[in-house]
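pls design
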């Protein structure tokens, strides 16, 4: 079952219909669905698909040759081209007569084993592009390799691509398509636990409860997800132990670099380098208060929900999980889930606002949004605003998100309005997002003000 990626497929179909040479670079983290996207696109089209393997040049060339010759003859063969240049030149010549797709998946494996491959591709593209109908797709999971050796200015292939796609996990709305049988609340919980990575979503059974799914995946040593974060790190980095320590520190509440350094027991400069790599991998997010650039105020959080859940709850319960005590481990985790879901709900609300904006239904036409935190001089304390988005120097949106079983009362609205006074905007619009709705007093005051939107989680999920 193929779900989502409509925009990416639309782009690929448009490029295919040009009937001229196209060169597309597709990259993204492992498990995010790049191969599934390519297979969906090339289905029922003239295409040569080849996946590189982590081996030497000889084996990759043999496999590549087999893919080409099987496409050409329709039968398996043990024949092989004598070089990658000969194999690629054969494909380019085929594409002079017919529209043809060549998809090289896990390109970094092939390029690392054959150091001259990128230069060979550069040579052949320059030679044949004007008369070729080839649609060349290079795909890779090594983010650093694709960015440094394919997309970067100094890379041999720079300037040859006609498009690039960074494939990211699904958002909440897309994720819900996998969860037809869950309740609305459980959809949010599962999104907060596994995120939007397709391969992880396939491990979830929507005919079981959230509790049983957590036990079957994260609290089961035999599960495919039990060691997934650590295994992914081993594939991407050279020193996974220190990376594990950094992620665990952030997951358990150390959000500033000095706190991370203290928790890990390494120099700040060392931790900064590791955090930078984790940001590049899409695992960690660096945030500064909205509208500010001061790095001294920067905080770090875990971008990927599965990593965030796993590092928050699994390592501290590893010993009892290994003994098969999934019930006990879950009892230790369950009380912390409502607090854990607070940040998840904020992200769901931000996605909701983006969709309103793109639909032309948001009263503030912002170009970015984020969180804000800082000093409140009147209260002589630190203040936070869950969502802040600016249209221009006079107009802004302020939002507050509450994932609680109680209805949001008037005091929450009043606090948000008061904190908005820390900013000089003349036109202000307020959004309150609530898991469980609003009190009558809050509803009445919102109507009276006229610039307040009250959005329940039920309204958000109904749009899915």
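designed seq:
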């Amino acid at each position: 079952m193929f779900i989502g990626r409509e925009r990416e497929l639309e782009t690929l179909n448009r490029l295919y219909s040009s009937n001229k040479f196209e060169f597309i670079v597709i990259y993204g983290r492992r498990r995010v669905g790049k191969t599934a996207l390519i297979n969906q696109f090339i289905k029922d089209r003239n295409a040569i698909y080849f996946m590189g393997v982590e081996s030497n040049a000889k084996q990759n060339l043999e496999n590549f040759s087999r893919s080409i010759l099987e496409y050409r003859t329709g039968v398996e063969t043990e024949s092989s081209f004598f070089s990658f240049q000969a194999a690629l030149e054969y494909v380019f010549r085929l594409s002079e007569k017919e529209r043809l797709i060549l998809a090289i998946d896990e390109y970094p494996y092939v390029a690392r084993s054959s150091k001259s491959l990128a230069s060979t591709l550069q040579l052949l593209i320059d030679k044949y592009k004007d008369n070729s109908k080839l649609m060349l797709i290079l795909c890779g999971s090594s983010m650093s390799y694709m960015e440094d050796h394919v997309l970067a200015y100094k890379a041999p292939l720079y300037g040859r691509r006609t498009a690039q796609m960074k494939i990211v996990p699904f958002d909440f709305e897309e994720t819900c398509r996998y969860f037809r049988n869950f309740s609305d609340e459980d959809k949010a919980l599962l999104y907060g636990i596994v995120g939007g990575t397709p391969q992880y979503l396939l491990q979830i059974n929507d005919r079981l409860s959230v509790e049983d799914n957590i036990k079957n995946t994260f609290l089961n040593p035999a599960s495919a997800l039990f060691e997934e974060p650590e295994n992914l790190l081993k594939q991407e980095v050279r020193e996974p132990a220190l990376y594990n320590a950094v992620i665990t520190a952030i997951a358990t509440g150390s959000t500033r670099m000095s706190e991370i350094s203290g928790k890990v027991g390494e120099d700040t400069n060392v931790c900064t380098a590791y955090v930078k790599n984790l940001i590049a991998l899409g695992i960690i997010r660096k945030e500064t208060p909205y509208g500010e650039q001061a790095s001294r105020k920067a905080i770090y959080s875990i971008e990927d929900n599965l990593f965030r859940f796993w590092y928050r709850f699994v390592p501290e319960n590893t010993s009892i999980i290994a003994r098969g005590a999934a019930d006990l481990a879950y009892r230790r985790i369950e009380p912390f889930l409502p607090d854990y879901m607070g940040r998840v709900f904020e992200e769901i609300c931000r996605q909701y606002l983006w969709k309103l904006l793109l639909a032309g239904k948001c009263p503030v036409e912002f170009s970015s949004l984020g969180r804000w935190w800082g000093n409140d001089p009147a209260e002589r304390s630190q203040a936070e605003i869950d969502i802040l988005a600016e249209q221009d120097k006079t107009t802004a949106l302020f939002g507050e998100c509450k994932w609680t079983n109680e209805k949001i009362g008037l005091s929450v609205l009043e606090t948000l309005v008061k904190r908005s006074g820390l900013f000089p905007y003349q036109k202000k619009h307020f959004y309150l997002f609530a898991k469980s709705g609003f009190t009558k007093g809050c509803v009445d005051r919102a109507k009276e003000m006229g610039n307040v939107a009250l959005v329940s989680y039920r309204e958000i999920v109904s749009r899915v």
